[in-house]
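We close this part of the discussion by returning to an individual protein. The encoding preserves chain order, so positions in sequence and tokens coincide. The sequence in question and its structure tokens are set out directly beneath this paragraph:

===
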Amino acid sequence: MEHNWFFPPHDGVRLGDLAARLGAELADAAHADRIVRSVSPVSRAKDGDLCYILSRKFRAELETSEATAILCDRALAPLIPSKIAVLLSTRPHTAFARAGEILYPAAMRPEAMTSSPAGVAQGAYVDPQARLENNVSIEPMAVIGRGAEIGEGSRIGPGAIVGAGVRIGRDCTIAAGVTIQCALIGNNVIIHPGARIGQDGFGYAPGLRPGMIKIVQIGRVIIQDHVEIGANTTVDRGTMDDTVIGEGTKIDNQVQVGHNVRIGRHCGIVSGVGIAGSTRIGDGVMIGGAAGINGHITIGDGAQIAAMSGVVADIPPGEKYGGIPARPMRDFLRDMAEIAMRSSTRVQKKGGNDE
């Protein structure tokens, strides 16, 4: 791949120093002074690159790799050619993620679009009744509404709108084109471009004549510390209660979170998921892409939901569910096997009739 000027290589980190920072073990101390500057897939790694492997399927790629170092667990270390330094870790995937943060700190959250120093850039508007702590950056064309409060070290991207009375904590990044209203946001929150936070929930009552009457939406959105919300995701405010996203939860792009939904701590929600109103999601729940979650149900702590599932009823804590309607994974896999077997039998019978 040609040189990437968007994310240029790091000036360099000694392997010995990197191992110490990652809590990894350098298999050969003689390699401690080697320098890594970038991360790369094994297949195209060059001198100065750091890679990682999780299974033996990379064996063929290792034979031609020119990486400076590879992260892996002890069981895979014998596969690594002697010319490549080995960093041993019991959790190589996690260690590689931390190495990426060290080598590319600017890529960990949306970068500033302009070179303006901290403060209010020309072309931005901050209402006189808004309150900004020290070292807050407001980029051009951003709008900060009446009575809004933004904590120290936070940055509001170009074209973003922070509504009246919104509270944003410290060290937050609100990227370009985000809109936030009726929301309280904690510290170290990242919201990616185009996300919509705190708009009306979807609520209507039958009218006296054909049609529907809008139900007032007067709740809030509460986003706790260390949450990350992907591009073009929408989080509706509550009807009368609050919509809540718990500490450390990570939400992918293009997810819909309905009104009054409560999501626990440290959940992972992948792109395309739709969560209907008043759903309760426990801590540590993982939801695969394009799953649909019915409203007014409860998903227990630690549950896992397969991609493209349709969840219509409660899921107990710690269970794995999949399919439409979602059911325990063992039942879903058995049903899929039976469908595949019946389909194969029909094809065979049809082929026999053709003969």
About this structure: Residues 13-108 form a domain with the Udp-n-acetylmuramoylalanyl-d-glutamate--2,6- Diaminopimelate Ligase; Chain: A, domain 1 fold (CATH 3.40.1390.10). The chain has a mean pLDDT of 94. Helices lie at 15-22, 59-64, 92-103, 329-354. Residues 15 and 231 are 35 Å apart (CA to CA).
